[in-house]
Design a protein that fits this description.
Length: 84
Amino acid sequence: MPDALIDELAYFEELRRKLLRHHAEQVALIKGRTLLGTFPTDEEAYAAGVKRLGNVAMLIKQVLPEDPVHHFPALEHGLMRARP
């Protein structure tokens, strides 16, 4: 994982409580240690980020109390193999 993404995720965690109070279930747009805004959808956050920053890496993450956990039973039971 690139260092910039690690830093942006850490910054999101610092802001999570505040974001939950005012922007729960919206989508946060973060670049570096700057919150560029919150948006109703991923698409709107991405469009705003590209318009403001160009086509660069940025964090777009939904504001939820906890990150969802996704299960892939076929992988868990050995029915498929993940490729590196």
